[in-house]
Design brief:
The protein folds into two domains: 2-191, 3-Layer(aba) Sandwich (Rossmann fold), CATH 3.40.50; 200-273, no CATH class. The chain is built from twelve helices and six strands. The protein is 43% helix and 10% strand. It is globular and about 55 Å long. The protein is of the alpha/beta class.
């Protein structure tokens, strides 16, 4: 597949690396550079008040370390994810329909990430773009079923309709926009991810022990501090798709956001997850 990407780059494709601040986007960026690909820019979709405060800082550190520009992407109307939840709560009030994002209704991803990113890609003036994302098959059964390289159909010109990725690259015409989505570390294990920055699972445990005893993040730890705080994965500080461990951990480290979401549960009558209420968390 790398050969295919190299062919695309030789034809003028521009590579963008999507980063949230989490380990997978960070590892992916390092790997792309190790494979000698030039990254046009890192892209960070800013979800606003639901983000870990350290996430943007982590993206900025990565940008500086890798010497790659960082572009912050937001909705054109300036609304963050908390605004979207509150808007939907008000709109659906009295209908009996839940308003929170969920695995079945991931409008947080479409409204806050994919759509603003597409708007950005349209603004670049480039007609051949490779959008890189840190999706890994190991993470879930659903992700394992994804194609690691695909056409970003809504972004591509109808000229490429009916073509495979290989055919689209082979027949690329600068007059017609072609955008691909690529998961460079699709087959990486979590151990492979840590290893991109010379870390192991034992190093994570050592960093956690240091934090538990000192209250500070070890200066040698290269990834997001939330992993040191105890998170298994990093997305929003309090994410509807996260494990109970990560939701609880996020609540403890982001008490103001937690209280706001609890108030929304109480006001709406809908729990944050179908089988879990934030009100059951004891900080």
């Amino acid at each position: 597949m790398i050969d295919l990407i190299q062919t695309a780059v030789a034809k003028g494709a521009k590579i963008y690396s999507n980063v949230s601040g989490g380990k997978d986007g960070q590892a992916m960026t390092k790997v792309l550079l190790d494979w000698n690909f030039q990254i046009e820019s890192l892209l960070h979709c800013d979800l606003g008040r639901t983000e870990w405060k350290e996430s943007l800082q982590q993206c900025e550190k990565l940008s500086q370390r890798c010497n790659v520009p960082l572009t912050i992407v937001k909705r054109n109307d300036g609304k963050d994810l908390l605004d979207r939840w509150q808007d939907r709560m008000n709109k659906l009030q009295g209908t009996g329909k839940p308003f929170w994002s969920s695995s079945a209704s991931r409008y947080c991803t479409s409204d806050m990430k994919r759509d603003p990113t597409n708007v950005f890609y349209n603004s670049t003036g480039h007609n051949f773009i490779i959008s890189c994302e840190g999706i890994r098959a190991e993470e879930s059964t659903a992700r394992a079923k994804k194609e690691p390289l695909s056409l970003r159909s809504k972004m591509c010109s109808s000229y490429y309709d009916g073509m495979t990725v290989e055919q689209a690259i082979e027949n690329f015409n600068p007059k017609f926009k072609l955008v691909l989505t690529w998961f460079p570390i699709f087959n990486f294990t979590v151990g492979d991810v840590w290893a991109t920055f010379n870390m192991k699972t034992s190093d994570l445990q050592q960093a956690r022990n240091f934090y538990y005893t000192s209250g500070t993040v070890a200066p040698w730890w290269p990834f997001h501090p939330a992993y040191v705080y105890g998170n298994e994965r990093v997305s929003c500080a309090i994410c509807v798709l996260a494990s109970i461990n990560d939701i609880t951990n996020g609540a403890r480290h982001n008490p103001e956001l937690f209280q706001t979401l609890v108030q929304m549960e109480q006001q709406s009558g809908f729990t944050f997850k179908n089988d879990f209420s934030l009100q059951s968390i004891n900080l």
